[in-house]
Amino acid sequence: MGAAFATAVGLAAITLAVSDFATTALGRALCVTTRFSFLLFWVTYTGGALKTLFGVAFQPVAWRGRDFGLAFAAAHLVNIGLFVWLCRISAQPPLSPPVFWFLAIGTIWIYVVALLSIRRLARAIGYLRWRMLRVAGMEYISLTFLLTFVGHRLHGSASGILLYVPFATLSLAGSFLRLTAWASRGAIATKRA
Questions:
Q1: Residue 164: which of 176, 178, 146 has the closest Cα?
Q2: Beta carbons within 10 angstroms of residue 176's beta carbon
Q3: For residues 104 and 72, is the Cβ–Cβ distance under 8 A?
Q4: Which of 97, 102, 95, 80 shows the shortest CA–CA distance to 29?
Q5: What is the pTM of this model?
Q6: TM spans, by residue (predicted)?
């Protein structure tokens, strides 16, 4: 968690230092930290699916899902701080109210899922409720990233394509992997029954 947070701070600081600390620089730093935290989320989100689909080679990734998830939550704190800073210095809100609330709910889910990683709390609410909340939260977070990357208009520039297309592809691939793993587990369970 500490390493992920420090890396996100470092990425933001470098981006701001290279730029001029203005509104556009904050936007760039937000882009960089969003992508870094997304990569941590993606490993968390797909680790179990990769193990199910591709075997024990991905077992260490699946076992470390909680660690990657907490690292993601820590790194995303930097993103939240940058966004608050951007809101404070912007003449007008950087996001429309519907987009703001959609992303705010995603942020709330990040920390609800992080809280659910506390084993004592998970046991207290029961496995089924814990599982339902965790899956709902992970899917909502995935949807916020997907819409962030897929919903952005590309202006035809190479940097625009590099900033969005690989991450949109990973986001779509993550959902596909999870859906395929779910179907695979269902097929295996049906054969055993």
A1: 146
A2: 12
A3: no
A4: 80
A5: 0.88
A6: 37-56, 68-86, 98-118, 138-155, 161-183
**Rounded Cα distance, 50 and 65, in Å:** 11
Contact between 48 and 65 (Cβ < 8 Å): yes
Q: What is the dihedral of CA 94, 26, 84, 79, to 10 degrees?
A: 110
Report yes or no: 149 and 171 within 8 Å, Cβ to Cβ. yes
Count CB-CB contacts under 10 A for residue 41: 25
**How many Cβ atoms are within 10 Å of 155's Cβ, its own excluded?**
8
DSSP string, 89-150: H-SS-SS-HHHHHHHHHHHHHHHHHHHHTSHHHHHHH-HHHHHHHHHHHHHHHHHHHHHHHH
**Residues of the chain above pLDDT 70, percent:** 90
Dihedral over Cα of 97, 98, 101, 107: its sign: negative
> For residue 153, what is the DSSP state?
P
Radius of gyration for the alpha carbons in the chain, expressed in angstroms and rounded: 18
Q: Where are the domains positioned within the chain?
A: 2-192
> Is 89 a residue whose pLDDT tops 60?
yes
